[in-house]
Amino acid sequence: MKPLGVMPIPNDAEDRRDITPVICYPNNNLQNYDRAFYDSVKKDMKFVKKIIIPPRRAGTIEIPAGFIFRILSTDGPQVGDLNIWNMNNLDEKFYSGKTRALHGTHVGVGDRLWSSFPYLRPMATIITDTLDWYGFDRYGGSVHDVIGTRCDPYTNNLLSGKQYHNCCHSNLTRALADSQSLRLDEAERLVHDVLNVFMCTGFTHDTHQYFMKASPVRPGDYLEMFAENDLLVGLSACPGGDCSSEHSSDVVKCYPLIIEVYEPILDLSNWRPPHLNKYDRTHGD
Q1: How far is CA 195 from the centre of its chain?
Q2: What is the DSSP letter of 94?
Q3: pLDDT tens across 36-71, in order?
Q4: Band of the pLDDT at 4, cuts 50, 70, 90?
Q5: pTM of the model
Q6: How far apart are CA 191 and CA 94, in angstroms?
């Protein structure tokens, strides 16, 4: 929270404040969302498999390029913390900060989830969101944020002095270690900042602090994405439940989440995954 200023106010203070802002990363040059293509891809598709994520736990699932995966609310309001890796190279993983810079604090249909440096390419594209009606509420809150990190045992210990292991960071670490036969310390280095699926968040108008509130998600709601590459997807059913009161908790009511995977019927033989970023990586040397 930015403290109250104590320095003398200059005579031109209001002039400085009134300067028109400039968008840091204009996304006009990004490839436009091809709604016709994605609508045709999801029009007819065949169910392939699913995974059930138990409350306060995480799981991983592999999704081939060109397939669709759906994160589904099932028994009650529940938020999830999503990690994504390139199935064939775990070093290429979801980059929430750059996704936020390119698309905004909360993502929706047409937005892409971008990968980390030096790859920086779309990993998945959001094609359906049953909560797109929510928009932004009077508090400045919206769903599916790329603002927050993930609840973790380090911050929890810092603030409470307690040991808690069912937070999303630890859930994802265990799930990745189990699925990829990694040591916990190896897996932990690959766990990264998340897409907070179904979570309703924003910044307070007065102190500009990150807040959460009860998610509007209900059983049957889902967020659906097209896999632009071969993906390993990890999802934690957050111990905060619908995040109406707290997270990193064994007290609040939590529910499972489901990831369903579908194969499009549409012939995608002429479709190709996005190419790697073309920066030459010489860094001016």
Answers
A1: 1
A2: B
A3: 999 999 999 999 999 999 999 999 999 999 999 999
A4: confident
A5: 0.95
A6: 10
Contact 129, 149 (CB under 8 A): no
Report the phi/psi class of residue 105: left, alpha or beta, with left for phi > 0 and alpha for psi in -120 to 50: alpha
Strands 231-237 and 80-86, by their bridges, are antiparallel
d(CA 106, CA 79) in angstroms, rounded, equals 14
Q: Which residues pair with 34 in a beta bridge?
A: none
User: Of 109, 133, 96, which Cα lies nearest the Cα of 226?
Assistant: 109
Is the separation of the CB atoms in 73 and 218 below 8 Å? Answer: yes
Per the model's pLDDT, the better-predicted residue between 228 and 159 turns out to be: 228
Is the distance from CB of 99 to CB of 112 less than 8 angstroms?
yes
Q: Which sequence spans correspond to the domains of the chain?
A: 37-264
For residue 81, what are the β-bridge partners? 196, 236
Q: For 104-160, where are the alpha helices, taking DSSP H only?
A: 153-160
Q: What are phi and psi of 200, to 5 degrees?
A: -105, 115
Other beta carbons within 10 Å of 204: 13
Virtual torsion, Cα 115, 93, 264, 271, nearest 10 deg: 50
Q: How far is CA 242 from the centre of its chain?
A: 16
Q: What pLDDT score was predicted for residue 27?
A: 87
